[in-house]
Amino acid sequence: MASVELRGLTKRYGASAVVDDISLKIEHGMLVCLLGPSGCGKTTTLRLIAGFVEPSAGEILVGDRLMSSPQRTVPPERRNMSMIFQSYALWPHMTVAENVAYGLRLRRIESGAIKERVANFLAAVRLGDLANRYPGELSGGQQQRVSLARALIVEPETLLLDEPLSNLDANLREEMRFEVRRLHDQYRYTTVYVTHDQSEAMTTADLIAVMNAGKIEQLGSPEEIYDKPRSEFVARFIGASNILHGKNVDEAHIAFDGAKLRCSGAKLSSGGMTSLSVRPHDIRLSAAPISGAENVVSGKVIRQVFLGGHRDYVVETAGGTPLRVVAPAEQNIAPETAVWLHLPPECCHVLVG
Amino acid sequence: MSAASAKARPRAAAIDLSWPILLFVAAALCVLIVLPVSWLVYYSFTDHAGAFTFGNFLRLATDATFIDPLVTTVIIATSVGAICCLVAAPMGWLVARSDMPLKRTVRVLVMASFVTPPFLGAIAWELLAAPNSGLLNQLYSSLTGAAPGVHLFDIYSLTGLIFVIACYTFPYVFVLVANALDRIPGDLEDASSILGGNAWTTARRVTIPLVLPALLAGALVAFLQAMTLFGSPAILAIPAGFHTMTTKIWSLFQYPPKPELAAAASLPLLVLTVLLLRAEAMILGRRGYSVVGGRNSDPRLVRLGVLRWPALILCFMLLLNPVFLPYGALFNAAFSRVPSQLLSLQNFTLHNVDFVLFELSATKLALKNTFLLGVLAATIGTAFALVIAYMTARKAIPGHRALGFLATAPVAIPGIVLGVGLFLSYTRPPFVLYGTLWILLIAFITISLPSAYQQLQAALRGVHPELEDASRILGATRLQTLGRITAPLLRTGVIATWCFIFVSVIRELSAAIMLFTSETKVISVLIFDLNESGDLAAISVLGLMMLAITFTIVIAANRIPGFGGDVRLRNA
């Protein structure tokens, strides 16, 4: 039973820190997603955990074993981990069965037992009849399942996944997301999953760590990350979001476009500037003035598109800020029309980052 | 699926071998490269008594017997560079970008001239165009009835030498140009056409600028090859009464030997080579050569129309010179009673074959030495290059950059210069290897190391690092991974490299000529010796054997070294 803990983990190449003082504790059996744009350090973090890269500072513990520190790094082969690679990394000179059996052979398990377990595992990932094929003869989805089987058959304490689904087409990707989650629930290893795809993270993860520029911007459940983004980066990266800037009026209000907006989240300091995030579908659009309500901003429609289930509006406020609004399909307002927007206070999140 | 059995951890790794290996490889590289070059520099700055002096260089700069060869070498190298471009560029274009028939055949024939040892070509051209006995000259006088002594060609001349060198140097330019043209996606030209460029504008504004760097680099390589070549000038220039730099350096080792002067004369050659290679790297490293972006479409072929067959005839006419005529002459001489007579039923004989194989005592020894050296150099060289390529490609240890640099450094040391350096290094204690096969082995490994290294590094780059990572994370140590994953995946690359080294050892002359003794002759040296004694028939038999072995191996390797890869065969 092993948790994975990163303490002040840092990796520098020359002067630039690719991974910058990351601390994160993953309890046993959790599935954590490292989510971020390319170049944010998520893959380096994963390779640090795997032991392919040595940290410049900080340490990595699995359970209570110290795995990595600048002084000493346990090599990957002695970490009892498994990894699934973006390229699948199936060995082209071995058959499917040989690929899957590789880890067991290294563990000097008796060959009859290997055979049986490989057969069981291949059946579990629905590849039983392809055991003697070579990887080059398989489709992308089949290759992916071979790489899953190869990684899981050694029953690792920790499973690492590096953008495992990015080479699959959209349908298969959806299917494999649930497959990854199902296998995780079945075997309950600690899983670290790296991806740049937010919906992939949303569907699979217990916890999401949004990374940017080598740091973790926010750690939380998918719901927390989506509903209460802490920084502008997280708000923009996870789903579409409108960002509003305004001067602080008191500890709960900012001035925006002549209106006073009440917001939720952190208390505001006096005299500063604050940014808010509002999701497009939280904004209520009205062709008539809304009286008596707080948090109303006026503007005019710039353009709108009909998307079947809803309409997507861009409204420019009196002060010139474009806002995206998702409105019901039947609410059809022509461009250049004056409109009023209601921004519910509980949906106006103060961004601290 | 039970959890119990698999929980067993993989066995702990054995001792970490990377540091001892690094130290060993670094030390070996130093012995191979730094040692001879250091002795070279040391000797060039000392006099007979071992005192420091600039005298050697002063003499080189003032003595006409040194200045003339230098001027001759520059003339030869420049002319060869220009001729090669003139011949290879149109031919490369025809093969890569036109609908000329028999393109594959033309490529194969260029490859044949590529692997023909230049000294063998030079000897074949002696048979063809020696002033009186040459077959072509005989043909000329029998056709025109010209008086004896009047001849059409004289191969023993500066122009003759330039011609022969160009014959076996143009493939270098051809390969670079044809590869560059192969790599330009047709889309780039289509994009120009759709924007309104006609065929000529497209060629002028898009295609030619894109291959120009390759052509320039090719010209530099041709210059370099012509400059450092030893065999052809030794065979053709010395009878004509002039020297090039390489033959001059060689003559300084004839009795009475003047190693200090030879060392001093080698240094400019070394410096010039380094500069030319840097220039080449700069030209190729900048824009244009590697075409970036997207999926590559097939190159677009230009329709030649009625010119298809004339174009092919032109190619074959050009290929007469490096391939058809010389091979014919060698074949003729091998089976004819008199090498300078055309083969007929009357003068057909197997005597030459019999003589070379059974009577000439030197043949057996030379064959044995050549094979022994070839197998050893290929095996050790491949293993050595593989270790270095692995360490640099995977950045396995600190200091890998320095290793890569050292492994490619010998490319800048011309064979003759390396020969001088090794001679100076190993004729004195603590390492007295002169007179043994070891010194030749060292020379051959050093010479083939850069290409072997580059070839294997390219092969390693084709093996995705994640394939190795996957093995590590599943519990294999670095060495286990190397054995079970990396090595099997590199098999074809390793075999190709082995064959490549073997072939270059067989054809190597310029370093061997400095280092052989009567007991350590190799085939190339034997051929050179037989040429001095005028035994052209025996040479032809040996030469054909040599070509047969070479072609067998090249075909067996099923990969043509240098065609497609960045591999470079050295001239002998």
Give a structural overview:
The complex is a heterodimer of chains A (353) and B (572). With 353 residues, chain A is an alpha+beta fold. Chain A has two domains: 4-232, 3-Layer(aba) Sandwich (Rossmann fold), CATH 3.40.50.300; 241-351, Nucleic acid-binding proteins (OB fold (Dihydrolipoamide Acetyltransferase, E2P)), CATH 2.40.50.140. Chain A is built from eight helices and 20 strands. Chain A has a six-stranded mixed β-sheet, with helices on both faces. Chain A has a five-stranded antiparallel β-sheet with strand order 13-12-11-14-20. In chain A, a hairpin with a 2-residue loop joins β4 (57-62) and β5. Chain A starts with a strand and ends with a strand. Chain B is an all-alpha fold. Chain B folds into two domains: 17-44 and 357-450 and 497-572, MetI-like fold; 54-287 and 308-321, MetI-like (MetI-like fold, Orthogonal Bundle). Helices cover 70% and strands 0% of the residues of chain B. Chain B has 24 helices and no strands. Chain B has helices at 18-44, 55-62, 64-97, 103-115, 118-129, 135-144, 158-183, 186-194, 199-228, 231-240, 245-251, 259-285, 308-335, 351-359, 361-393, 400-408, 415-426, 437-461, 465-473, 478-489, 491-507, 512-515, 523-532, 536-557. In chain B, α2 (55-62) packs across α3, α12 crosses α17 and α23 runs antiparallel to α24 (536-557). Chain B is globular, with a radius of gyration of 26 Å. The model of chain B is unreliable at 1-14, 287-295 and 560-572 (pLDDT under 50). Classes of the chains: A alpha+beta (353), B mainly alpha (572). The interface between A and B is medium-sized, with 38 and 29 residues.
